[in-house]
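Comment thread on ticket #2218

A.B. wrote:
> Attaching the input chain for the structure job we discussed in standup.
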Amino acid sequence: MKKLLTIALAALLSVSVFTGCQNKTTTDDKNNDSNVQDNVNGADNSTDDKKLETVTVAASSAPHAEILEQIKDILKDEGYDLQIKVMDDYVTPNTAVEGGDVDANYFQHQPYLDQFNADNDMDLVALGAVHYEPMGIFAGNSSDLAALPDGAKVGVPNDATNEARALLLLESNGLIKLKEDAGVAATKLDIVENPHNLEIVEMEAAQLPLSLGSLDIAVINGNYALSGGLSISDALAIEEADSLAAETYQNVVAVRNGDETRTELQTLIEVLNSQEIADYINETFEGAVAPVFEAAAE
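C.D. wrote:
> Ran it. Output below, let me know if you need it in another format.
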C-alpha cells in the first residue's frame, strides 16, 4: 500500500513540474513573439521616423533638375524632402512660384528674372547664384562661321534678355556690330553693321535645337543645348569665361520676395553652393555648365 502511495505521489509531482515548465515556455514564447512583432512594426527606436518637411522646386530638366537630384539625400539628412517639378519653359516656373504652387525655381539668370518681373508685375527675388551655362553658336546648314552665305538664317531666342546675349555673342565673333551702348539690352534693332545681311530669326528658346535643319546657325542656351542632345564641344563658338555674359547670366534660385529667410530655402542654396556640387558639375558637364560660387575655386 505504501508503495502504491509513493508511486502516485511521484506521478503527481511529475505532472506539476511538467505543467509549470510548459506554462513558463508558453509565457517566454509570447514575450518573444511580442518582441518580434514590435520589430516588424518598427518599434526599434534606431529607425529614423522623423517627418520630413517638403521643399518643392520647379526646374528645367537639364541641367537644373539633374543638379537638384544630387542634393536630395543631403537635404534628407537635414530634415527636408526635396520634390523636383520639371518645367521646360521660361514662364511656368515663375508663375508657379508666384502662385505658391512651388517654393522656388531654378532655371533662369538674373536679367531674365528682372525682365519677367517687370513684364508681369511680379516681385520674385534671387536667393543666390549656382552656375553659369555658356551660350553657344551651333551649326545648322552651315558649319563655318567664316563662310556664312549672304542672307544666312540665324536663330536666336525670342525673349529679350537671351536675345541680347545671343547678339553679343554674334558680335564677339565678328558677324554683326551693335550700337556701342546696347549691352545686355540689345535687340536686333541695335544692329548697326550686318555685312552678310544675316536674317535674325527669333523663336522660343527651347525650339532652337529642334530647328537647326531650317537654319544656317543658331545661338542656343546651354540648358537647351544639353536637353537637345548637343555638346558644348561641338559649338562653333561659345561665350568666354571672362565675358560680360559670364558675369551677367549666372543661373539663380528664385523665390517669392520675403521667403529668402526661410530656413529650408537657406539650406537649399547652401547645399547647392557646396564643394560636392561644384565637383559634380565640373565632372559631369565638362564645361557646358560651370559652377560660379566661391567654393568651386577653392
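A.B. wrote:
> Thanks. Noting for the ticket: The radius of gyration is 33 Å.
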